[in-house]
Amino acid sequence: MKKILFILLFLAISILAKSQTVIVIDKTNLQPLPYIAIYSNNPKVSVITNHNGKANIDAFKGADSIYFKHISYNSKVYNYNDLLKMNFKISLSEKTYSIDEVVISASKFEEKRKDVVQPIQVIKPKELAFMNQPTTADVLQNTGNVLMQKSQLGGGSPIIRGFETNKVLIVIDGVRMNNAIYRGGHTQNIITLDNSIMDKIEIVFGPGSVVYGSDALGGVMHFYTKNPLLSDTSKMLVKANAYTRYSTACNEKTGHVDFNLGWKKFASLTSFTYSDFGDLRQGANRNPLYGDWGKRTFY
Question: How many C-beta atoms lie closer than 10 Å to residue 21's C-beta?
Fold first, then answer.
């Protein structure tokens, strides 16, 4: 009996000694939100969520008003009992307006989007995650502003305003992937870029020869990859993501994993993606007046 009482007492002390952690997530994609300011006026305390969207709120016990704020999200206020009822899991919704969105692709230096003369489209990280497209070619095609020529499943050659291949420029992190000496026919350069590791995509429509050279007649597609995260503590930051996907439409099988190792002054981000697509086959239904014209009789 004494042993049972001792075990129960030990468990009670352990539960009381355990620090209380709150996690803040995005309401749309359910991803953890770092750098969310959490503060209270009574008691006067404040903390910021870490890279995993978590923060220790032991000091907030009994607080009547606990504020959750971020410049890109709608603020929320709860008391400590409300947090307890929600199991210390808070979801924030993103603000519907953009505060002076900055773009780089138009002039190769940072400037406000509203000051850019050329039409430009920005695909943000959340949009990339929400699209969940098999390839980068499909990402661009789903914007509705870039035509994609496809000769096989998993492929794609972008066309902007009637210009293609050596007349539209593909840039990744400031390094061009093609130029004017490339062939004039369709090429599949775009599918060599992994959309799972993209942080942002900027598409500049119209001539960009003054800034980028004569191979940017139709436009520029500038891809920005994710940056490694540094640790904000003395401990090494380890963060990883992984997913698998199967698509019945094109018999797609994709696996992805990336991991981030971060210290105070050095960080690295490594990404691996493998994709396999089925073969594109001709449909069985065709106009009988055509006969066997253009038909492939073997596979």
Answer: 14
Q: Name the CATH code of domain 18-92 (choices 1.10.150.240, 2.60.40.1120, 2.40.50.140, 1.10.760.10).
A: 2.60.40.1120
- Would you say residue 13 has pLDDT above 60? no
CB-count burial class (<10 Å; 0-12, 13-18, 19+) for 134? buried
* Matching fold, domains 18-92 and 104-225: no
Report helix, strand or coil for 135.
coil
- Bridge partners of 70, per DSSP, are 73
Tell me the C-alpha distance between 174 and 202, whole Å. Answer: 12
Q: What is the DSSP letter of 94?
A: B
- Going from the C-alpha of 162 to that of each of 67, 79, 176, 178, 189, the distances in angstroms are 51, 57, 20, 18, 18
Q: Which two tokens stand for residue 244?
A: 């698998």
Lowest mean pLDDT: which of 3-12, 163-172, 268-277?
Answer: 3-12
Residue 85: enclosing H or E segment and its boundaries? helix 80-85
Give the per-residue pLDDT at 103.
Answer: 67
Parallel, antiparallel or unpaired: strands 168-172 and 175-176: antiparallel
| Domain boundaries 104-225, CATH class | mainly beta
Residue ranges covered by each domain of the chain: 18-92, 104-225, 228-299
Place of tokens 């020529």: 149
Distance CA(235)–CA(61), nearest Å, equals 27
Among residues 245, 151, 242, which one has the least CA distance to residue 191?
151
Residues 123, 132: contact at Cβ < 8 Å?
A: no
- In which residue are the tokens 């099988």 written? 253
Q: Are 171 and 164 in contact (CB under 8 A)?
A: no
Q: What is the pTM of this model?
A: 0.69
Check residue 238 and give its pLDDT.
Answer: 92
